[in-house]
């Protein structure tokens, strides 16, 4: 049974189409990533301010940058949500009121929170802000979701550990917006409730200090008669508690049919190449399924496209049921990215066919590169000659952020990207 506000599809001209199209929500660790995410098709982005966010190592946004990001997103009809999802201690209380008022004044559409302190404060001092409950609250049953709905929240972010069947039950029983993760890192702890970083680096993982201690390499020892006996032989691969990344590209049709309101990509610390690649792929999948769900198929080139920015093995994790040991990486089990980000297109002269590109990784004449972007079909070509901004020929683009020019056989647009195969 679907709730009255959750009609998923209808018949149009004899064909079923999806009328409840989910929001595609992308990460943005800084202003450049925000613009890239929106340009490549995100309906909304989530960002972190310089306070009260769980990604202290991201660039994060000043209030002025948040305002600029909101203005940019508004021009494209996109929304901006700000994470304020730390578990606050007494020392974090001063300043909460002023910070939330500043977010409301900047035009932020909503905040993602975990601590009742911040929820209560937002309701009191910044009532125009939508309040979304963070995955840090580990919501995995409909009764808990019902509780937070009765507290007045507009949306809940489900725990990464919920299955498709549990999502179905929650949507059937509670009329509230549901946000669920579809792609990105998984945590070895329960939706991020971890204190490894606290113990090993004196950084509070639940106040933005997580350093991913679970992904470190560990030796294992057995204590016997006061002696440490190594359990690994010399040369053995070290042990790590490293979960495979989540990848639900093949489950997007199921999530849409379940009525999930927002499909979330993890990764505020990731590069603009990662953001652009993942957002563009899921944009294509969502749009294609919603246009003709009964004849939809997953194109394998979409799957391969995600591999071009993947640096870990991936799995469906909890979506299809409780995962087993194959959802974790042990020892040296990892994946090398098939491609590396080489350059960001700044301009293209249609008369001369010369592109202006900002270097992001070393490339040189003779390299075969691939261009991609929302306005073009992916294509490859071999670079012939490279010039600097003053017209001097170069043997390579070797300096970070160097501006170079070279001929490209097809038209390009600003924010298109260039990569090369490893």
Automatic annotation (TrEMBL):
The keyword Hydrolase applies. Keywords: Hydrolase, Protease. Pfam families: Peptidase_U32, Peptidase_U32_C. The keyword Protease applies. InterPro entries: Peptidase_U32 (IPR001539), Peptidase_U32_C (IPR032525), RibuloseP-bd_barrel (IPR011060), RNA/ubiquinone_mod_enzymes (IPR051454). Residues 338-419 form the Peptidase family U32 C-terminal domain. It comes from the Bacteria. GO terms for molecular function: peptidase activity. One of its GO terms (biological process) is proteolysis. Gene3D superfamilies: Translation factors (2.40.30.10). Belongs to the peptidase U32 family. This is Protease. The lineage of its organism: Bacteria, Bacillati, Bacillota, Bacilli, Bacillales.
């Amino acid at each position: 049974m679907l709730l009255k506000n959750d009609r998923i599809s209808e018949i149009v001209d004899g064909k079923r189409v999806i009328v409840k199209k989910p929001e595609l929500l992308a990460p943005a660790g800084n202003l450049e990533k925000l613009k890239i995410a929106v340009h490549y098709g995100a309906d909304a982005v989530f960002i972190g301010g310089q306070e009260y966010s769980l990604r202290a190592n991201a660039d994060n946004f000043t209030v002025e940058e948040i305002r600029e990001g909101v203005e940019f997103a508004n021009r494209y009809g996109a929304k901006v949500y700000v994470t304020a999802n730390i578990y606050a201690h007494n020392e974090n209380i001063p300043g909460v009121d002023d910070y939330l008022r500043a977010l409301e004044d900047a035009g932020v559409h909503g905040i993602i929170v975990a601590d009742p302190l911040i929820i209560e404060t937002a309701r009191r001092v910044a009532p125009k802000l939508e309040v979304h409950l963070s995955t840090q609250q580990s919501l995995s049953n409909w009764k808990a979701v019902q509780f937070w709905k009765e507290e007045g929240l507009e949306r809940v972010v489900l725990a990464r550990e919920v299955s498709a069947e549990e999502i179905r039950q929650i949507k059937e029983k509670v009329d509230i917006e549901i946000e669920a993760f579809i792609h990105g890192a998984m945590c070895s702890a329960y939706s991020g409730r971890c204190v490894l970083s606290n113990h090993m680096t004196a950084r509070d993982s639940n106040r933005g200090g997580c350093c991913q201690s679970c992904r470190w390499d560990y030796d294992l020892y057995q204590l016997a008669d006061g002696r440490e006996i190594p359990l690994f032989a010399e040369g053995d691969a070290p042990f790590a508690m490293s979960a495979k990344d989540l990848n639900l590209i093949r489950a997007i049709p199921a999530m849409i049919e379940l009525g999930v309101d927002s499909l979330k990509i993890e990764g505020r610390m990731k590069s603009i190449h990662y953001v652009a690649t993942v957002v563009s792929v899921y944009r294509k999948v969502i749009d294609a399924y919603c246009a003709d769900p009964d004849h939809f198929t997953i194109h394998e080139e979409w799957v391969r496209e995600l591999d071009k920015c993947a640096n870990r093995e991936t799995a469906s994790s909890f979506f299809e049921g409780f995962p087993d040991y194959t959802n974790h990486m042990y020892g040296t089990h990892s994946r090398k990215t098939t491609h590396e980000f080489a350059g960001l297109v700044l301009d293209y002269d249609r008369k001369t066919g010369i592109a202006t590109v900002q270097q992001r990784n070393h490339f040189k004449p003779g390299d075969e590169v691939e261009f991609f972007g929302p306005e073009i079909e992916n294509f490859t070509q071999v670079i012939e000659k490279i010039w600097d901004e003053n017209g001097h020929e170069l043997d390579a683009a070797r300096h970070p952020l160097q501006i170079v020019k070279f001929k490209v056989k097809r038209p390009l647009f600003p924010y298109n990207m260039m990569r090369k195969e490893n």
